[in-house]
Amino acid sequence: MLRTVINRSNYKFIQSRSYSNMVSASVKARVDELIKKPVFVASKTYCPYCKAAKATLGQMIPNLDDYIIELDTDSDGEEIQEYLRELTGQRTVPNIMVGGEHLGGNSDIQALNLKGSLKTKIKAAL
User: What is the block-wise mean pLDDT of the chain (126 residues), using blocks of 10 residues?
Assistant: First the structure.
């Protein structure tokens, strides 16, 4: 019974910690600049959904690498991902913005691509 109380106490402590307070001002400023680019993709190198999204976007954006940040290889990756969650409500990757508009993840841009509106959004942003 004591173990249950301790576990619940620890859980409440962990749950009440605000990770967003741990996002530094410099990371926030960096992300705020990155999302001003015509296209912004927060990705992870090993993620299959990120690879699919980058393949689709790469067909429309020749210099796509200029707009990608790989969170798993960036020293600020965890903070960037948390700040993007605060901004967009999405913590998963890929996290994609075009022309300052949050489009979502891979399934979202694939749906836009099927409708034909992804290319239009990208052309307008570039």
Answer: 48 44 91 96 98 97 96 96 96 96 97 97 95
Distance CA 99, CA 78 (A): 24
**C-alpha 10: how far from chain center:** 29
Structural domains in the chain plus CATH codes = 24-125 (3.40.30.10)
Query: Nearest-CA neighbor of 57 among 71, 73, 41, 70?
Result: 41
CB-hemisphere CA count at 13 Å for 22?
Answer: 10
Q: What is the pTM of this model?
A: 0.82
Please name the residue that has the structure tokens 């891979």: 106
**Residue 104, Ramachandran bin (φ over 0: left; ψ between -120 and 50: alpha; else beta):** left
Provide the total of helices (H) and of strands (E) in the chain, helices listed first. Answer: 6, 4
pLDDT of the residue at 79? 96
Cα gap 43→57, rounded to integer Å: 13
